[in-house]
Design goal:
The protein is elongated. It starts with 11 loop residues before the first strand and ends with a strand. Strands 3-30-29-28 form a four-stranded antiparallel sheet, with no helix packed on it. The longest helix has 14 residues. By secondary structure, it is mainly β. 3% of the residues lie in helices and 36% in strands.
Length: 834
């Protein structure tokens, strides 16, 4: 079950900025303290390489770890994104070895005695049976195909969690076919050793409450506890009389226990006879005394069990019995269904103090927690514990990783190891359920979008051995608690990064611009990145749909998604002078604005994408120096075929990337701006002049004039492989469109959901944010462009950043790329090294 938690995961999110051409580069370099002579020389080189862009994001969904950390210069440790051995097809180019299974794997059960892995596939209502002895870490020969497949019946809406009985004889699968039941399968005749019973399918079903999601069994009383999410109950099923060998009790109506709001996962501690049930709807864990609420003794089931408070929207749970610790994964969602940035964590509950026999030790205050990756808790089986090593594995669906919590150093008795974020390991696309076979040293991860199971060595990422762990992220500047950001722009002269700063409360959002002092908060100097008091902010009338800066006039333009464009004089609105007294508004008209923006400083034109058109804003008398023409103008607009996703400017050219709703193709429109700019709009109505087909959901543009290439990340909405389209603009521009319509752009693979593209003209490096990989990919444009693909990497070199990186801002003066991370409320600082 996915939680579509951020607002733009329900729709389209707009974002934009632009970089500038030759004149602007000179201004930037001089403002940064570079001499005019050096600025002129560098500008000549930059004039051939500078990227012009403005971007719009498509909603993120859920790609991997193992990135070689890169800083200035482009060096770092071992690049773990390269597969350790041949892997089956993944949306994620750096995915670990994997085994193909059915459609959309979503649940697991492991039999350690027969070394069998059962994988529930909710896309085709089957269970794949894998021989773990032949498909394990360091031995992948048997990973080529499942040993057998169990059919569960009709396809919709698909099964949920799986559970193997303690004796290994029965496999329980929750809610096949949406029948509010649990299927009972004979695992004794369907396993890695014996497959004769696999074709039989379920031998019985047992009714539950509405929406059975998570399950656990108490081995002492042989009671199966099933969380019924929408019903706010837990079914108490007698597994002694309802199993693969004895089905007489399967037809009986099971008693239920009333728990908290929307229970999603269940764990049992047999030592304390306690059933823990996390309640995603009210941020608690119900604590049931299994000694008097079980299949034989139901007297204690009548009372509402006590609760322990945890983090926001707990969705997964696991118990490590050796340390009496209950780990609860918190997905960070609020009551409105929005994810609160920075709240993805795992609560650490002292099970010795808070259990069924000792409920007075449970508290209304949340216990300590360890930070993990984004999307933790999105799946009901997205957490598992290795009782031998005490490690706890948590799926980070938004980062395509699993977090690894060292249970020996982060538990109820020893919290010192909980202070730092848990390290992570790369997976395939959209990791969900997690399982472990300790005797085989193997962690299995269900990669929902890949239809595969990642096969990971549990020895590769531990406290003592970090070779298989994802390197730590580059430094980051935090926003205020619970705030998030997706956009950034830099004014080099004022040493200020303007960062979208949003806060959701009760389903409503307030937006400001956070003002970061780039002199004291950059890749080389982070002393001012966590100021006290917090960053100064500028309130915005609407949301910060787009932010662009015209370096030549020191003007910040913010499209708030309404009917107006905000114009801000950076000299009076920056990190050291946040008075923001000089501002103006440009009326854009009804249903315009909120789309991508791009600035052409040579013609003093701001292009603003609307819902089906592009507005041409005259900035000649609407800038920081002269705002007289802002409120009085009525911008000319010209129609386009679809809603613009991204705008990019080159000489005499505006590139407009548009997402076509399938089966309509996504295209890049080529607009001739020679007579469609602030001073001459006579030919705007006849635009666009031509177009080029690109991949699905283009999200940004970057122009590299040195290599005659327009780079367009195609994010595929996170559901298919990310691509970087490379359009040859030699004869595809405003002056010459002869090679536009017939061109098939070259492409290269990127991690899942590539979002923004930023070109450093001084190093020729293209930086692409990978939203569902928590990384930034580096492309050498001299070796990977429209005319030459020999240097296009199979697995791009990556820089680890925060969770959900969005649209970046490049500061050539401080050699820093500012990367806002929408899922954890930070801005990463990437050194560009030129």
């Amino acid at each position: 079950m996915h939680h579509l938690s951020n607002s733009w995961r329900h729709g389209t999110r707009l974002a934009a900025r632009s970089t500038e051409i030759l004149l602007t580069v000179i201004v930037v370099l001089i403002a940064a303290g570079v001499s005019a002579g050096v600025a002129s020389a560098n500008a000549m080189r930059a004039a051939d390489q500078i990227g012009f862009r403005a971007i719009r994001g498509i909603s993120p969904d859920r790609f991997p770890t193992g990135l070689g950390r890169v800083g200035p210069p482009l060096t770092g440790g071992l690049d773990l994104r390269a597969p350790l051995s041949a892997s089956f097809t993944s949306i994620e180019p750096g995915a670990p070895p994997s085994a193909p299974v059915g459609a959309n794997p979503s649940g697991f059960a492991v039999n350690e005695r027969t070394h069998t892995v059962y994988v529930v596939n909710d896309g085709d209502n089957t269970v794949s049976v894998i021989d773990a002895d032949a498909c394990k870490a360091r031995h992948l020969a048997g990973c080529g195909h499942p040993l057998a497949t169990i059919s569960l019946g009709p396809v919709e809406p698909g099964p949920g969690a799986a559970l193997l009985s303690p004796d290994g004889g029965t496999l329980y699968v929750g809610d096949p076919s949406g029948a509010n039941s649990v299927a009972v399968i004979d695992a004794g005749t369907c396993n890695a050793i014996r497959t004769s019973g696999c074709a039989v399918g379920p031998v019985a079903t047992v009714a539950t409450g509405n929406g059975p999601i998570g399950m656990a069994e108490d081995p002492v009383s042989q009671t199966l506890y099933v969380a019924n999410g929408p019903a706010n109950t837990v079914s108490v099923i007698d597994a002694r009389r309802c199993n693969a060998q004895q089905t007489a009790g399967c037809g009986e109506t099971a008693p239920t226990v009333a728990v908290g709001s929307f229970p999603t996962a269940v764990a049992v501690d047999p030592r304390t006879r306690t059933v823990y049930v996390d309640n995603a709807g009210d941020d608690t864990v119900s604590v049931i005394d299994a000694s008097d609420c079980n299949a034989e003794q139901t007297a204690g089931c009548q009372a509402t069990p006590p609760v322990q408070a945890v983090g926001l929207a707990p969705d997964v749970i696991a118990v490590v019995t050796r340390s009496d610790t209950v780990y609860v994964g918190n997905s960070g969602g609020d009551s409105q269904g929005f994810t609160v940035p920075g709240h993805h964590s795992v609560s650490v509950i002292d099970g010795a103090q808070c259990n069924g026999g000792h409920p007075q030790g449970c508290s209304a205050a949340p216990p300590p927690a360890v930070a993990v990756g984004s999307g933790s808790g999105d799946w009901q089986q997205g957490m598992t514990a290795d009782q031998h090593t005490q490690n706890v594995y948590v799926a980070d669906t938004d980062d395509d990783t699993i977090s690894v919590i060292d249970g020996k150093h982060c538990n109820a008795r020893h919290l010192s190891g909980c202070a730092q974020p848990a390290p992570s390991v790369q997976t395939g696309a959209d990791p969900g359920a997690v399982a472990v076979d300790p005797s085989l040293h193997t962690v299995y991860v269900a990669d929902y979008l890949d239809d595969t199971v990642s096969v990971i060595d549990d020895r590769a990422c531990t406290t003592r051995h970090r070779i298989g762990c994802r390197p730590a992220a580059v430094p980051a500047a935090p926003l205020a608690p619970s705030h998030f950001s997706e956009l950034a722009a830099v004014d080099v002269a004022e040493h200020t990064a303007y960062v979208e700063d949003a806060l959701e409360s009760g389903g409503s959002f307030t937006f400001t611009l956070g003002l970061i002092n780039t002199s004291t908060c950059n890749a080389s100097d982070t002393a001012g990145c966590n100021p006290q008091p917090p960053l100064p902010t500028l309130p915005l009338a609407g949301f910060a749909g787009n932010i662009v800066v015209d370096q030549s006039t020191n003007t910040v333009y913010v499209d708030g998604g309404g009917n107006d464009l905000e114009v801000i004089a950076a000299a009076t609105c920056n990190a050291t002078n946040p008075s923001c007294t000089k501002t103006a508004l440009v009326p854009l008209g009804t249903n315009n604005g909120g789309g991508p923006m791009a600035i052409d400083p040579t013609t003093h034109t701001v292009y603003v994408g609307g819902f089906a058109d592009i507005a041409v804003v005259d900035a000649r008398h609407c800038n920081a120096e002269d705002m007289s023409g802002c409120a009085t103008q009525t911008p000319v607009t010209f129609p386009v075929a679809a809603e613009p996703n991204a705008l990019g400017v080159a000489p005499d050219t505006l590139y407009d990337a548009e997402y076509g709703d399938p089966p309509a193709p996504s295209v890049v429109d080529v607009v001739d701006t020679r007579h469609c700019h602030a001073g001459d709009t006579s030919q705007c109505a006849s635009q666009p002049a031509s177009q080029v087909h690109v991949g699905v959901a283009p999200s940004d543009t970057a122009v590299d004039l040195a290599h005659h290439t327009l780079y367009v990340p195609d994010n595929g909405q996170g559901e298919i492989a990310g691509l970087l389209s490379m359009i040859d603009i030699t004869h595809c521009n405003g002056d010459d469109t002869s090679d536009c319509a017939g061109q098939t752009p070259a492409t290269t693979r990127l991690p899942r959901l590539p979002q923004s593209a930023t070109l450093d003209p001084f190093t020729g490096t293209l930086y692409v944010t990978d939203t569902n990989d928590a990384s930034v990919s580096l492309i050498d444009t001299a070796r990977c462009n429209a005319a030459r693909q020999a240097g296009c990497p199979h697995v791009p070199r990556g820089i680890v950043v925060g969770s959900g990186p969005g649209y970046t801002a490049f500061d050539p003066g401080d050699h820093t790329l500012y990367v806002p991370n929408q899922f954890d409320g930070t801005v990463s600082l990437v050194g560009t090294g030129h």
